[in-house]
Amino acid sequence: MNHRIEKIKNATESLRQEIVNHKVYSMIKDIDDLKIFMQYHVYAVWDFMSLLKALQNNLTCTTIPWFPKGSADTRNLINEIVVGEESDVDSFGIRKSHFELYLDAMQQCNADTSKIDRFIQELKQNGDFNAAYEASDAPEEARDFVDFTFKIIGSDKAYLQAAIFTFGREDLIPGMFVSLVNDIHNNFPDSISIFKYYLERHIEVDGDHHSHLAIEMTSNLCGTNEQFWEEAEKASIESLQNRIKLWDGVYKQISNKNLIKNNEAIIC
């Protein structure tokens, strides 16, 4: 493997382990806890799609008239990932993006989708992120997470977009989380079957095949430019730090919910 890829992996390993072993997972005991997790995580699922399309816009010709753009190998890599993320299939074989599949999962377990719905609607109308955050009362940690992603998108540097796509997003679902979701599913199969399918699909497609494609794409874009590799490493670290902050927000919200619940039990 490219020694520069190994360098980024080594530089980010402690952060990746902090995410994989985050205390938030042990806090998720039931569907109500899972709902809180999903109401934060959905912002990351949404902006992942925006990051993906930014890469496609930068690496392929998406305007008319069409002209060849960049490396055909790189075009092939990003287009293959886009197909899998933007038009995958649900458990019934219906074509959907992973974001739409996630919304289906939230609706099935009665998680609140009103905030993300209002956020997207407001953003469609005026393109103002701050106004969309305010209108939807988006969690602070989700705002920071999305802001960082769009800072990298706004840089118009495809190699940075590829780096955070590769090292900050693709394969960070720990086995512990999958196991606890399976346990909840055993008790409430009609409430989280779609979310279980989403996780399984994510691991099957994103965590294996797409992660290899993403590594190859990042290697192609950074090439032999040492400055690109240094910037890619820095952006990858910052991306993972923002993921940790997002999980910290989920942990705090679940803890507060449990504290209120315990206090109410004591009063009763």
Describe the structure.
- The N and C termini lie far apart (about 60 Å).
- Helix 3 packs antiparallel against helix 9 (about 160-165), helix 9 (about 160-165) packs across helix 11 and helix 10 runs antiparallel to helix 11 (about 190-220).
- The chain has helices at about 5-20, 25, 30-60, 70-85, 100-110, 115-125, 130-135, 140-155, 160-165, 175-185, 190-220, 225-265, and strands at about 90, 95.
- The chain is an all-alpha fold.
- It contains 12 helices and 2 strands; from the N terminus they run ααααββαααααααα.
- A two-stranded antiparallel sheet has the order 1-2.
- The mean pLDDT is about 90.
Radius of gyration (Å): 19 Å
The first-to-last residue Cα distance is 61 Å
| Classification by helices and strands | mainly alpha
Order of helices and strands: HHHHEEHHHHHHHH
Q: Could you list the spans in which at least 5 consecutive residues all have pLDDT below 50?
A: none
Strand order of the largest sheet: 1-2
- Number of beta strands: 2
Mean pLDDT: 91
Share of residues in helices: over 70%
Features of this protein?
single chain, 268 residues, mainly alpha, two-stranded antiparallel ribbon, 12 helices, globular
